[in-house]
Fold each of these.
Amino acid sequence: MKILVCPLNGPRPVTEFAYGGEVRHSPDPDTCSDAEWSNYVFNRSGSPQPKYEWWCHIASGFWFVVLRDTMRDVVIATYPAEEVRRGLAAPASSAGAKV
Amino acid sequence: MPYRLLRFGLSRKHPEPRMFTRHDSLKTGYDVVIIGAGGHGLAAAYYLTRDHGIRNVAVLEKGYLGGGNTGRNTTIIRSNYLTPEGVKFYDESVRLWQDLGADFDLNLFYSTRGHYTLAHTDSAMRTMRWRAEVNKHYGVRSEAVDAAFVKRGIPSIDLSCGGHAPILGALFHEPGAIARHDAVAWGYGRGADRRGVEIHQQTEVTGIRLQGGRVAGVDTTRGSIATSKVLCAVAGFTPRILDMVDLHTPIYVHPLQAMVSEPVKPWLDPIIVSGSLHVYVSQSARGELVMGASLDPYELHATRPTLDFVEGLASHMLDMFPFLGEVKVNRQWAGLADMTPDFAPIMGLTPVEGFYLDAGWGTWGFKATPVCGKTMSHTVATGRNHPLIEGFGFDRFARYRLTGEKGAASVGH
């Protein structure tokens, strides 16, 4: 991936973008257990698979969501940030995507 | 090729000496199975047999021996860390490095060069003083030095760095060294092999069997093995192994790239690191400049290098050493760095009984190879964490007791 297609600005060099990590949902801090909270604070899904990620086009300050296979560095789809509130479908399994 | 050399090469009287025995099949069970035949895994196997008398050990490697981060790092050895846990741990490693070549009867090209961590800002100087004081407290030779000292040690450096990042001083760490990384894996591998350890290359672990919350066996592409102890030392592949035993950690994987120049005559004796310029460089025994920089900016589990990296690193090298403008880059490559949020490793026992972890070695694992082998073999043999790795425990995140080592990472990642 050297060119990333931004939903707002079209195809731009990847150096214009900042990676914001995986899209994650916080448990309710008032009701969750200590273990659930520390799991949310620290732990990550480290293995390669298609993941929803936050990316920002720095020049325009535009945040959006990218579904990217972290094994092959292939962008599967991009979404406007509002989609996160509406709920993103679970990404398809990475089985067979290995190179 | 001279005819005599060709004849020697083909002669039956002088067969190519083999470093390891080739085993055609796996046994049905082992006392300990080590996943990953890199420096860390082989060192653990070596000390398990040598110091703990556990010989029925298999080391499984999905690729070839030493082909992961052991063969991809920039070979720098130092102990000028920031936390007491880190300083004590890496200092023990530097001590072990001293007689390792004699131990193996193999030339590791271990070369003590002195190590400068350059400071370009007041805040960086403050961190250097902090590290120097912690180091001295634990008997490690480090000191904060001024720009004139840097210039005496590295006469060819441009102290102004092209005018935009002038060098104010440095942390000078006298024991800083480099070594031939492949030989480290071969030395540990041969030593373990001679003591009865089986090294199985081209053998990928596909699953780990658990019974009642404890390890019962390992499934591989060449068959299943029964074992009650598994040591995982697989660097960037750690999350994939952890998925097999359903353990969750903060480990995230980014590629880390490095490159070497064409060989030039010796001019750079010490090892130089600049956090602000994202460079670390040393000159190998062959005369190549071995150079590295910071992590690639996003998660990826592939090792394809990029042009961006070469451009950025070369430009920062030229800030320090403008006369290198005509020197060519020979090779570049990448490895998979298993990063942790506090820049310290995750080592020792895990909630799964019989599953031991030596991971989270991100960008700082090569220098720790001997001490990791020592402490992990102790941990596996006794079932208790070695005292030197207590600051690196698996459970430290759940207890919010991090071992903040980011200030001593070679460059600001």
Amino acid sequence: MSILDNKKVIIIGDRDGIPAPAVVECLKDTSAEVVFSSTECFV
Amino acid sequence: MSYPVLKGVGYALVNTPDMIVHNGTTQTTEKIVNPESEYLKVIGDHIRKYEEVLNYAPNQVYIGNMKPEDLRGMEMPWADKGAKTAERFGKFGEIMPQDEFILLMKNADAFELVVLEKEFTEKTRTKLGAHPLYANEAAELPEGAELSVIEALVADHAEAIYNDGKLVGCVKRAHDVDTNLTAHVLFENLVVKASGILAFKHLIATNGFNVEDVDYVIECSEEACGDMNQRGGGNFAKSIAERVGAINASGSDTRGFCAAPVHALIEAAALVQAGVYENVVVVAGGATAKLGMNGKDHVKKGLPILEDVLGAFAFMIGKNDGVNPVIRTDIAGKHTVGTGSSPQAVITSLVAAPLDRNGMKITDIDKFSVEMQNPDITKPAGAGDVPEANYKMIAALCVKRGEMERTQMGDFITNHGMMGWAPTQGHIPSGVPYLGFAQHDLTEGDLNRVMIVGKGSLFLGRMTDLFDGVSVVIERNSGVTEEASSVSHEEVKNMIAEAMKDFAAYMLKE
């Protein structure tokens, strides 16, 4: 059971940190619903 | 294999205080969505004077008057600490003031799109005339126009050019309806071209090159020139080559967001190594859109707006001369479509994979030049220390691969990394700001091998969710060039053939 189970999730990734697709991948084993995910460039 | 070499560099910054306010997208967006904002009211109080921009340590590193290691011991923020020197000119180039640069935009203009005010032109012409690289250009500039003419043009779709808060010129649109030839687009493109020319001229002058020896130019900034039928068709490269007098050069533009300079470095090296061209120059100008990009955060924290310079660079790749550092085209990394986006996958593809293929370890690289973004700019904006984040990931991978102990990570970051010094101008910090120092470190210095890494945010273009990255190793020259060894190879072969012939003749005689 994950703390994100049955939650709707918004993911903002960082190109020089953890990009969004990598976070999405981590949530695949939970029942969380990714409603928005985007990688941002802060530079 | 005869590797190509890094023959020289040229770097330039241009302090553009008025362009922060009028052309930086953070400010122009704010003017549209929140015209009465507090930020716009106080922004003027946070713009640095030219002398302060000169007296800023990261800027002095950029032009070679200070070294990256000088920043290591400096307490942050750096903005109020001053620099060891506040010179305009440095070993690699210069930090140019805005008024002179506006004249450079006129010099870069091939279609009479830039109109400058009369009095401003004459006053600044005298200043620019004293510039060691622009005396002729200053003399050749046409007379300016009356202010009323410029005011009328600005009222009719031209993009205004300001200096010290005053209207001093404009860039006209080049078409009535073509969105790619609007005054705004042409303004940005002329800025890229003019600043690229400045860096190119420094490359040629500082290194004593003959500009006519340049065969090919690759431009790798983030702007696009073209009309409505070919947005981004190009070609900044050849337009820059034309203006610097590289009469024997052709060129093309390489794009790849912030990763483009490292793509261009690899392409230039490949062209030279393949024998297609002897001397290839990679050049890029600066982006007005990114001026003051993090300005709101800087102002909120009581800092000056630190994104107040355009960046530009140029470097030349040539045939192996037995002296200059070689570009190891066989040790190049790439983030592929299938690589994945986890930090481990990214660093493996860019750093570990190319080294593995060549039987090397991560610790065999003396210095990594990653995205050398100035943390003095990014940290107050909440974007962290970009170079440090990259070094931490490289160090972590090193530990994971068993190349060093976890306790050695701190030393690894200090010894194999650097503090960032490049302005947040997208493509400008992309690994290549270190090339000038690398040339020294790998010849007169004590380093043997460095890796240049560039990353690009492709997702910003909305064509793919992917980002990108490439890397390449540069190494101390062994002093043995392929030409020298292949000639002696040939000689040996001829000698053997001669001996065989003599022997055959002798046998026949017998």
